[in-house]
Fold this sequence. Notes:
Layout: E1 2-13, E2 16-23, E3 27-32, H1 35-38, E4 45-55, E5 58-67, E6 104-119, E7 124-131, E8 137-142, E9 155-164, E10 167-169, E11 173-176, H2 184-196, H3 201-210, H4 212-218, E12 220-221, E13 223-224, H5 227-239, H6 250-259, H7 272-280, H8 288-295, H9 305-324
Helix pairs in contact: 2-5, 5-6, 5-9, 6-8, 6-9, 7-8
Amino acid sequence: MDKCTSIQKVREISGSDLLLVTINNSTQAYWIYKYEDALKYLNQDVVVDYRKDILDGNIQQFIKTFTIPTEIKTLSKEDNIKLFTDMHDDNSNVHFSDIELESTAVSATVFCISQEFLSSAKAKWMELKIRDMDMKIGILRIFDYENIAAELAGKYVMTNLSRNKYGFQSDFVIEAPGTPADNIEIKVARQFCENMIAADAASLSFVSKYNLFDNLLEYVDYEQGYAIVRLAMELAMTDAMINISNDFDILSVKQALLASYGYTTRESILSPIVNNVFLAQSIAWDDKPKVIQLLDIPNENTPFEGKIFTQVKELVDTILKQRKEI
């Protein structure tokens, strides 16, 4: 495990600070980050990756990914677990929270998660889902996009971000250098999900048959792969109820939560609910009728566990909106 052994402020740069970080008393790399915020990493075990960039005309080593590792455990009544990390993206240079309404951040570099071309009766526009230094997600709309490169998803882009009540707007966007850093939360979540279902034969069968986890890593939820973070949070929240109640079937709720992502494993004209019910029919769940009922549209025959299933999903969605949206 690497340890951050020194952090020195070199100078202020682009509204932030240029730092020189030492890892394991030997490896040095530059880092663009606020000095006061960086001090919490000093003398801590860290996960760190590097990239090359130009500083003052010379090629130097910079930090690409820098975070405190999260310990992964199988959840039990005695264990604590963290399904979040204090991660940031050093290839970006802007915090959405710093851009006030009706103001503009000039030459902002952000990561483009997805790209769509949309239209209405009165206009047509390009809509980009973008991510800032804090891993927050925003929407950028560009109305005159005819001269803009077509493929921007999965790349860093530079633009002027003008904020309004609908999100962000700009009149240009160009591709910017930078290699996307892996989102540590996604890696943590996958390992947690694997640990969570390790003793559940039915869930293992479902994941294996439909290659669920690999498909979730390709699916875009806030950003590519983030659906598995959502699933991990739902499973963790439900499993924690072992500590407070034995009044309902926790296993069936967890199995239904897992199966509720079946629709991400294939393209279909069917709705997600119909897809999920269809795919789950082939698995020998511990209480198969109950799991199928939980996946289906709620009705008067839906068991009590249906309320838990729905409320867990709603609560996780509320938490993720606070974490990822601006």
